[in-house]
Amino acid sequence: MSRILDRVMDGMDIETFIICVSEDEGRRLTLQMFREMGFTDADIVFIQFQGPGVRVRARAYVHRPGDNYGWLKAGPVEGDVK
Amino acid sequence: MKPLTIGIAGIAKNTGKTTTARALLEYFQNREISLGVTSIGYDGERTDNITGLPKPRVFLKKGNLVAVSEKCLSVSTARVKVMNRMDIPTPLGSIVSGRVVEEGLLVLAGPNQSRYLRTIRDWMYRHGAEIVLVDGALNRVAPMVETDGFILCTGASYDTDMDRLALETRGIEVLCNLPGTVEIPPAVAAGGKSVLWDQNGRILAELPAFLWEPGPLAILNGLPARAGGFYLPGVISSGCLEAIRRMTIPAGFKFVFENPVKLLLGGSVVTARLFVEDVLERGGKVFYRRSLPLIAVTVNPFYPGYKNETCRYLPAFVDGEVLLSKIRESVDVPVFNVVKQGPEELGGLLLVLGRQAAC
Amino acid sequence: MTPRTILLAPIDPVHDVGLKMIRRGLKEAGHNTILLPPDLPPEEIIQEIINKRADTVLLSRTLGYGVAEILARFVDLADALGVRERVKLGIGGMAIRPELAAELGFDAGFGPGTTVEEALAFVEDREYVPEQGKRDKQKRDLTASYTYAYGNSVIAELLGQITGGILAWVQNKTSPGVLRARAREELWDVRRWRGYGKMTEFLKEYPGLCGEMTRNFYLKGIMHPKTRRFTREEVAALENYVSKTKERMTVPGLQHSLKKPMVFNQYGTGCPFMDTGHIKVSEAWGADGVIHFDPSWGARTEGFMDGFLTHQEDGTVITPANLNRIKQSLEPGTLWQIRAHRGLNTPETAVLAGKFQADFTKINICYGALGAGTDPARMTVDGVAAIKYAAKYGLPFDIVTNEELCGVPAHKAFAGMLISCALGLRLGGKPVLQPLFCYSPEVMVEGWMKDNYVDFNVAKVLALRRIIDAPLWPGAPIGFLTHTEDRIQSSASTAYHASLAAMLGVDAVTIASSDEAYSGGPISAPSKVDTLRAVGEGFRFFGNMKLEPSPQALEWSWQIEEDIAKVLRQVSERGDFVGALYDGILGSREDGAYPGRNGKDTVMNV
User: Fold this and answer.
1) Domains of chain A and CATH, by start
2) Do the Cβ atoms of B142 and C44 come within 8 Å?
3) Whether pLDDT at C263 is above 70
4) Which chain A residues touch C250 with a CB distance below 8 Å?
5) Mean pLDDT of all residues in chain C?
């Protein structure tokens, strides 16, 4: 079985709002969140801090250009229609 | 023991300044030596400002003195009783000085000018500091002139070619430790300009303090035998030093620079070193009005390796043993890897220095 | 102020636009500026500082590996040459933060988004105070500049006849809603309530005027099944959250160079905690006002519960405690609207809005009766009472025309809106007209928005402007039924509608969040931010540009005006407003309007 992640063409964005006291903290928490989710290649696409926290768009790349793309060799994943 | 101010300067970013500072702080604190701690930059981030890699903070015990920007206190776990608000501005608020009343981690950010370092050092001495440690920033050396000597942190982050790194490190050592100090005629030093004087202390010519282009140096060409020396209070560029090397110089002619920093900042350390060695070899002399001894070197095999695939910096290392031996071979001062060796030898060296100064 | 000499040096291979903008600002403030060519070595910049006797140096540089060392060497050189002591050094660019400036040895660091004013303050040794209005928004009465004079005398006269009839009809009538409002008004003191004082008199009378659910709450302590009280710990945590967030709040405006429209955002997740979080986000991202949305069952329920209650479905329950908490969480300049408009609690909501010092309420008799399920007779009696309370508390109220969404044509909805408006004026109130900016069933069926979403919305505004000089507040929200679940499309659509509203010079708009069209759960904070940012971008894009109405828009506007007059004439001729509502003159069953049944037969003669 392939991982569903193999089918992600390039990256995966998380759009959210995190309560924090500064942009720095927001960045740190966002990247930490990705690490906790098992993504190592994560970055912040957009972040804006105002009093209540950060509006953030964060990205984890699953496939960078030049990688071996999982979706080219992906086998069936659980739940696929046979 | 006479109080001593020790600087920790880096040849570049990520060469282990804070690691060295932490090791020394631990060493001195274990021996209950009264410390004063400040920084000429900012070194409290959990991650590096540029590469995003993790960085250490410093741990301070109760009783030690600190001088840091106001904003550092709120993000430190060490509790500091503020004794003095100094009128020294920084991007992170004014500098406050005080004593640690509850041990913990401290974010270090201090003054950004040499003259302020003087004020802080004096305040720390007045309040009983036996050793004042000045944590450096990046590759900055200028404020080190206010110290009694400095430790140079060198490492792969400046250059992963260990031979070039050794050459550069040796260059800094030569510039700091080879020339001695000398007094110059009062009239020569008074104007704040570069001055050519004769053997009787009379001024022959004046040039700007900052010599960037070799043009004005033409007057040094074909110097009369009565020419005594050339004093330069500012910075001189590598190009100017090259130009001087091409000139003939009367025997015993003195080049007097304000301090080693003025040569270190000229552009190329290697060129400046060649200048010094060349002048000495040709019977001339090189002096400083004020010395800045290089006390020791620490090495750090770490460098931020840039990974193209991910566009990220990842920790990378050169061979630590090879690095240590290459640097040891090239310089005369002691060389340490404090991560491997611990702080005993380096700390001991500084204590000896302090006792010698007292004598 | 003595002019300073500022050297601006881009250390990048190209000139930095930010640096040039700052230069313009510094020049305008009377300082001497010298912009150096890009990418000079540190030594040459130092040489220039010495030669030009600069007081301040502003460098700009994009940060990358190795750049920090160049900048640090620059500072070192300045220090070693004695220049550092008399020159202030600032560094700006992407990724520059104060910590980094400190590390590099600079006096200040300016990141992206630095304003010219910030740089100017640095140059002039002043403490930088964010622009007026950023920290401190002033509330403005959007009705202030209007005369409410009629421009269409025929319509004015018809409205006079109709409202006269309504006021005469309601004179000897009352309802449980009106009686509760009176109890709330006369027996319930907000100050005593805040001080946990006893409300014996009120509690003796009020439960008897309520429906079963609310009565059970007061007499047997039974909660509505979808609600619960907050725990003491939760309340303390909320108080802590609000006070901490308030310390960090700045309240930017979205309008750029515009004076209006003000931008309103709705909240009403069901939970006052989540609402508070959402309100702070709305405020921090530029909303000028927020609107309280209560659950749909609130309109069908006689009476309000009390206590700090959360609700598991859409809409936040109106209770004095909920309103009080929400009021306390608002920034001082944030406008606050509590909707009264449509149900069995309309007059009492107006009283609570007044007592909790809201800035607006919302009342529309026709919409309440035809689109929101309230019995027309009851809605008329309660609506008039609500308008009186709004007038008493000086609360402007908007008259929303959401019956358009049921399928009622704009001109009929507008006729109803003008009746409520005229009632408001007769009773001393400050009505605000709220035409929908939407893709309504009427225009879908008629194909009037085949080409664009502009003309018909413009026609509505033009028609209303000719009829009466009154404030306009398109809503609610603008762009209704143009939104999809996609946040880009949805935010863009809202921004276009807001920009259209701005170009028409209206006074306010209510905007949706970018997940307005999603029905699987409450709206989210990021979705609010998206739409607010999009609207700000729209205002920035068009600035003070005005819109020239197309011939089609003009033609439609005349048609709407004419049709409104026709509808009003029919209502007037019917001689009985409530009867006209039943008969479908202001929106028929064929259109999609159904006279409501909630509160049927509850109107009492006095």
Assistant:
1) 4-64 (3.30.30)
2) no
3) yes
4) 50-51
5) 92
Q: Do C526 and A15 touch (CB under 8 A)?
A: yes
The four Cα atoms C328, C329, C332, C335 give a dihedral, to 10 degrees, of -100
B115 touching chain A per CB within 8 A: no
> In this model, does residue C133 exceed pLDDT 50?
no
C39-42: long-range pairs with CB below 8 Å, 24+: C39/C10, C39/C11, C39/C12, C39/C13, C40/C9, C40/C11, C42/C70, C42/C73, C42/C74, C42/C77
Q: Output the CA–CA distances (angstroms, integers) from residue A5 to A60, A67, A70, A78, C593, in the order listed.
A: 11, 14, 8, 12, 50
Residue C92 touches chain B, beta carbons under 8 Å: no
SS3 B5: strand
Please give the Cα distance from C588 to C403 (Å, whole number).
11
Best mutation site among A29, A41, A45, A63 for testing chain B: the one with the most B CBs within 10 Å? Answer: A41
The answer to whether residue C323 scores a pLDDT higher than 90 is: yes
| Structural domains of chain C in order of their starting residue, each with its CATH number | 5-123 (3.40.50.280), 153-559 (3.20.20.440)
ipTM over 0.85: yes
Q: Give the integer Cα–Cα distance in Å for C73 and C83.
A: 13
Q: Which of C531, C449, C455, C462 is nearest to C498 (CA)?
A: C531
Q: Which pLDDT tens digit goes with each residue over C44-81?
A: 999 999 999 999 999 998 777 678 888 999 999 999 98
> Which mean pLDDT values do the consecutive 10-residue runs of chain B (359 residues) have?
90 88 93 93 60 64 94 85 92 93 90 92 95 91 94 93 96 96 87 89 89 88 84 93 90 93 93 95 94 96 77 82 96 94 92 81
* Partner-chain residue, chosen from B41, B113, B304, that has the shortest CB–CB distance to C103: B41
Interface probe, candidates B39, B42, B53, B236, chain C, greatest C C-beta count within 10 A: B42
Pairing of strands C475-480, B79-85: unpaired
Is the pLDDT confidence value at A78 over 70?
Answer: no
Contact (CB, 8 A) for A47 and A23: yes
**CATH node for B4-177+292-358:** 3.40.50.300
CA gap C544, B331 in Å, rounded: 70
Joined tokens for residue C282: 């709305």
Band (C311; pLDDT cuts 50, 70, 90): confident
CB atoms C103 and B141 under 8 Å: no
- Put simply, the answer to whether C103 touches B234 (Cβ < 8 Å) is no
**Which of the two residues, A77 and C490, has the higher pLDDT score?**
C490
Look-up: residue for tokens 């709407």?
C560
Q: What pTM was estimated for this model as a whole?
A: 0.72
Using CB atoms, which residue from C244, C277, C526 is nearest to A55? C526
Q: Is B115 on the interface with C (CB under 8 A)?
A: yes
Contact criterion met (CB below 8 Å) for C278 and C267: yes
CB atoms within 10 A of CB B164: 12
Q: Would you state the structure tokens that stand for residue B334, as one six-digit string?
A: 């002691």
The residue written with tokens 């429906």 in the block is: C211
* C245, C524, C526: residue with CB nearest A51: C245
Of B175-189, C423-437, C569-583, give the lowest mean pLDDT range.
Answer: B175-189
Helix axis angle for C42-52 and C67-80, nearest 10°, is 40
Instruction: State the CB neighbour count (10 A cutoff) for residue B57.
Output: 20
Per the CB < 8 A criterion, the answer to whether B357 and B148 are in contact is: yes
Q: How far is A69 from chain B (nearest CA, A)?
A: 14
In this structure, of B260-264, C118-122, C384-388, C461-465, the range with the lowest mean pLDDT score is: C118-122
Helix-strand-coil percent breakdown of chain C, rounded to 5? 50, 15, 40
Bridge partners, residue B67, by sequence: B38, B97
Q: Which sequence spans correspond to the domains of chain B?
A: 4-177+292-358, 183-288
